[in-house]
Structures are given as structure tokens and as C-alpha cells.
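[User] Could I get a sequence and C-alpha cells?

[Assistant]
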Amino acid sequence: MDRTVTELLRANEGHAREFASRFDAVQEAQHPEAVTVCCSDSRVLQDHVFDNHTPGRLFTCGNIGNRVVQRTAVGDTVSGDVLYPLEHTGTRVAVVVGHTGCGAVTATYAALTDGLSEPPGIEHCLDLLGPHLEPGVDMLPDGLDEADAVNRLVEYNVDRQVGVLLDSDDVPDDTGVVGVVYDFQDVYGGERGEVHVVNVDGERDVATLRDAHPAVADRIRRLWEY
């Protein structure tokens, strides 16, 4: 067996010892407080981002580009892995988690501007992001380098994914939808690894959001108010 897998199994021994009793309350069912839709980038430690050590607290979805959309025979729709906890476990909070320097956003930006070609599986994922990002690419200010353009599009992508959830008839009307960006590249000026709120139920204006949510006003920041 590959050494990496052996090391993962050994690391799991410590996890099993620490968490054994924490599964008692969720043996038969789950009622997570929130569903999070994170990018599957290896630098985004999805549960650790929120210091989650409680089985059953978060229903965590991951894919490249933190997409809430999947393609079906009837067209693009909200992904089943996002809908499941909203439909079946009483969850009423959805959090879309983008991150600085997102590779999926970078690749989609390149595909839209330079015609980047990827293997079919990756191309399918980028095709799901492309229609949502294309208007944002057209709106970018002149003179941005690629890193700055990508980080603005990260916010734009989060906004668009939030919008998909808010507009979907499949998502319960009383679901709160929040968009955030996880920053491990010192882009937002806070601590490395902080999550910054950029969108709450479709509202993007920083001043309005800070007035409405004073308890977390210092965590509400945007790079791009378009």
C-alpha cells in the first residue's frame, strides 16, 4: 500500500480515539445547523475553517469552484448534495465558501479570455461556472493583474452561487443564504485564514450589511463593490 495511505490510516487512529464518544447523539439521524458549499481545493480545510469538531453540526459539500449548480436532463439546477439537508434534515442555513486564489475561478477566467482547454471532466465543471462568471469578466476594471482579477471574480462567483440558491423554487423560502470568502493569501487585510462575509441573502453593500449585522461588522468586507 502507498505510504501516503498508510500515514492517513495511522492519523485516523488518533481521530477515532478523540471522536469515539462524539457520535453518540447522531447515531440514528442528523440535523445539521448549516450546509456549507466549499471549494475542494486542498488548502481549504472545510470543517476546520469553522473550527468544527462536532459530528452532525455541518453538512459539508465540496467541489471545484464551490458551485451549487449541477447539470441534469431538465437543465441546470441546484445540486442534490446542497439540497439534501435543506429538504430532509431541517437545515435552514446555506453558506457558500469561496477562497482567495481559487484555481477553478482562475481556469474559468482563462477559458473565457484565452480559450483554455482542459480534460472533459474538468471542462464540464468549468462549463458550469462559465455562464455565471462571464458577466463578471466583462465588468472587471481595466488594468488589473490576473491575481486581482481572479480575487474579484471569486467574490462575483460567490454572489452568483448565492443568487442561484435564492432564486431556486427547490430551496425553502425560509433558508438563510450567506456568501463568504476564505482568505489564506492576506488579500483582505485580516488574519490569515479568516472568513470574510461578502453577501447575506443577496445583499452585497458593505455598509448596509455592517449596519444590519453589527456583531460581525469587522468580518464583513469586499474587494469589489460593483
Remarks:
- The beta strands are 34-39, 58-63, 69-72, 75-78, 93-99, 176-183, 194-200.
